[in-house]
Amino acid sequence: MVTFGSFNIVSKLSDGTVALWSRVLHAVPRSRLMLKAGPLGDPDTADAMRARFARHGVPAERLMLVGRIADAGGHLGAYGKVDIGLDPFPYNGTTTTAEALWMGVPVLTLRGDRFIAHVGESMLTSAGLEPWIAADADAYVEKAAAFAADLSALAALRSNLRRQLVDSPLCDGPRFARNLEAAWRGMWRHWCASRAAAP
């Protein structure tokens, strides 16, 4: 049984996200979806979330709703219950995506059309996980089903994901600093040139 998951805040779970994740659950029989966010510890909020998925034909027993876990070890340990991470849209995860990858959970994201919807794409590209970027909703469902169907490939990826992340540009602090310095230097030179050209 494959467990999809997202530890993003509830406000990022747009109606479009719930609809698409419901399609994923229908495309992967017997799969489950684990959602972890502080407000889900409240029974009324959890019931409201179940109702949102029920409108798309997803029964409550296929959802694992978890509230806040106070200690960092317990929070990160909860990723051990997730096989494949799902990125919300249009506002993608950032810290949650980094945490998932660090804990060996690959994240499937949808290519967006604005900055907040390109974060997942940017992070996965930097981490060398381009196949986990879906061009549209249909591709998102197809990729989720394909990744869930090949458990040996998924296990192989997960076993090496932290090392892949550490070796990627996403975790290359010195490289990031050099690029940021170059950008600042370029902006400063542009400003100086504009001042020199002013009458």
In total, how many beta strands?
Answer: 6
Indicate the overall shape: globular
Class derived from helix and strand content:
alpha/beta
Low-confidence stretches: none
Q: How are the strands of the largest sheet arranged?
A: 3-2-1-4-5-6
Work out the radius of gyration.
19 Å
- Whole-number mean pLDDT: 96
Biggest sheet overview: 6 strands, parallel
What is the distance, rounded to the nearest whole angstrom, between the alpha carbons of the first and last residues?
70 Å
Strand content: 5-15%
Helix content: 40-55%
Topology pattern, helix = H, strand = E: EHEHEHEHEHEHHH
Helical segment count:
8
Q: Could you walk me through the main structural features you see in this protein, from its secondary elements to its overall organization?
A:
- The chain contains eight helices and six strands, in the order E-H-E-H-E-H-E-H-E-H-E-H-H-H.
- With 199 residues, it is α/β, with parallel strands linked by helices.
- A six-stranded parallel sheet has the order 3-2-1-4-5-6, with helices on both faces.
- Helix 2 links the parallel strand 2 (32-36) and strand 3 (63-66).
- Helix 1 (15-27) packs parallel to helix 6.
- The termini are far apart.
- The model has no long low-confidence stretch (mean pLDDT 96).
